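worker-3 :: picked LysM peptidoglycan-binding domain-containing protein
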Amino acid sequence: MEIYLVSEGDNVDQIASRFGEDVNQLVYDNQIEYPYRLAVGQALVVQNDIQPKRIKRAAATCGYAYPFISEWVLEQTLPYLTELPVFSYGFTERGELIPPFTDDSWVIERAKEYQTMPVLTLTPLGDDGHFNNMLISRMLHDSRIQERLIWNLGDKVTEKGYGGINVDFEYVLPEDRDLFTAFVERIRKVMNVFGYRVSVALVPKTSAAQRGLLYEGMDYRGLGEAADEVFIMAYEWGYTYGPPMAVAPMNMVRRVVEYAVTEIPEEKIILGMPNYGYNWPLPFEQGVTKARTMGNIEAVQLAIDYGVPIRFDEKAQAPYYRYWQYGINHEVWFEDARSVWSSMDLAEEFHLKGMGYWHIMQLFRPGWSIINDRFDIIKQPFKM
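worker-3 :: tokens ->
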């Protein structure tokens, strides 16, 4: 498999013929919609049997999903997943679990059919949908609440048939840093006894001394020792209320990985990637401008609809473009085959355990095709 950039005048028949590939396969691999229009600068994955087969190493993959995911999208994605973290279970001030709004049973069973491990994701999300660091703090400072929460987690993973737990806490207070690390270690020690694995999601730090509420409560070294696996959320540099830029600029992601491997064994690290982009109206005004989230395939289709070329930022290793609508200029940053390829290069360079997506609610087949082409995805059987 390789990547081809669309030039002026290209069409799917010409491109397929050039590589000796069936045109239907080209259309399928790249989710090209009828009538098969293309954007100049669009990155396409193409099958190329002329190239020698690469030697692939085993790697773990994961992708977060809400229980209301489309059944079709889930079935298209599960063949590429080692783990499926289901988002999410919350908890009360007493340590009682709050289940997802939609029943997760069918997602768990479907994952097992594809030899993918379903993982219960634990978050401290409040009623407003935001992370509640005071709820975290109260739990961390009360051993009885912790005991109740861990007991309830054990009951739930057994009842539902989960294979592990992912702890996804953000905005942990700086003064709670060591308590949070101890909590993750406590969960892991209890769950490992019963055969369950425990992972933890980490915000993207570039140094131990990094300042800011998002970073100071996260001890990379301690959490790397406490958990069986870590998922580094290496995205959201470009975000809803921030200025237009790549969601996961590779120059910044590299800095995060370079720091992470000094604190955490590389065989424990899953590199998190975004499966989405943002569309900003311009000019950007801090505190006023709000970007719209969009899928990667949707972003390409929008460029086609407005007849604008897709450009590529070499430093960020990310595609972008601008277009006008109703007198307003827009700037779009998203992910394509080239940015995924760059992430795979980074994972290989640092011998990471694998990679994962936030999130898989929309299918991005080119990304999974690249991952599948470059790695042997780890699978494991489950008792049904």
